Amino acid sequence: MSSRFELPVTQPFDWPSLMAFLQVRATPGVEAVRDGVYTRTFGTPEHPGTLSVRYDAVKSCLRVEHSGSPGDEKQIAPRIRQIFRTGVDTAPIEKFLQKDRWLRGFIRQRPGLRVPGGWTPFEIALRAVMGQQVSVPAATTLMGRLMRLAATWSDDSACVFPSPEQVMSADISRLGMPGKRIETLRALSRFFVEREAAGLPSMEELVVVPGIGRWTAGYILMRAAHEAGDHWPEGDLVLRKALSPGEKMVSHVVMARMFEQWSPWRSYATLHIWKGYDGTNSRPE
């Protein structure tokens, strides 16, 4: 049995950039992006489900098909909207950011660029920790290892993303990560268990977790916030390089001052720089 529904999207809508971002970060066993289609598992180990999301450019909507009943749409639809930011009107955001001549070039290349969200804040938080000081592909590999250690698999190819309790009880010492980062994963899982349904944590709450600094907390909030806008990964290396006109990189203080001018849309400034910076087009003096 399968059910279908549609979600309208606000134009402009940069679907290819969303797909590119999610594809390289897809959690093995849980998510995949193939031929412009996003698929994932959802539900619980006892009642797993699958879904797929396609973009219909003609009707300007997302077509969602899932294995649950029509009643599951109420739980699924908000999460799909969160991942793809379907209701965001990027026009005023882009108009504001284009006041900066340097950013203008990036924005004109990708009108309708979204800040990709996630299924839950916990998923995004684990991904953020996995991404500390390693490449994107390496972080994806680590996520796959974590799924093997902590998730319940319906077969050899699919699993439902583990709960904080499952991660806490798993033997994650075999992840092949530094001991301090493993302790951060445990502390972060405990943090989400204790919060239960308390909603999205604040920057101040996140940075109290051992191993969570302002870069990690900013990344989590940038992607997990219902209305992504002003959160950003403070001190991000790529952003620092992009903002440095010469060989000497700008300081964290100078970088933060530069980002102040893009408030309240620093999340979107971050994504446009990440997508547009190629190592040769740093911000001029």
Task: Please sum up the structure shown.
With 285 residues, the chain is an alpha+beta fold. The protein folds into three domains: 3-87, DNA-3-methyladenine glycosylase AlkA, N-terminal domain (TATA-Binding Protein, 2-Layer Sandwich), CATH 3.30.310.20; 121-224, Hypothetical protein, domain 2 (Endonuclease III, domain 1, Orthogonal Bundle); 237-276, no CATH class. The chain is 45% helix and 13% strand.
- What is the H/E order? EHEEEEHHHHHEEHHHHHHH
Work out the radius of gyration.
19 Å
Question: What's the CATH H-level homologous superfamily of the largest domain?
Answer: Hypothetical protein, domain 2
Q: Strand fraction band?
A: 5-15%
Estimate the mean pLDDT confidence.
95
- Overall, the morphology is globular
In total, the number of strands is 7
Describe this structure as you would to a colleague.
The chain folds into three domains: 3-87, 2-Layer Sandwich (TATA-Binding Protein); 121-224, Endonuclease III, domain 1, CATH 1.10.340; 237-276, no CATH class. Strands 1-5-4-3-2 form a five-stranded antiparallel β-sheet, covered by helices on one side. With 285 residues, the chain is of the alpha+beta class. It is built from 13 helices and seven strands. It has helices at residues 15-25, 73-84, 90-97, 101-109, 121-130, 136-150, 164-169, 179-195, 203-206, 214-224, 237-242, 252-260, 266-276; strands at 3-8, 31-34, 37-43, 48-56, 61-66, 152-153, 159-160. It is 45% helix and 13% strand.
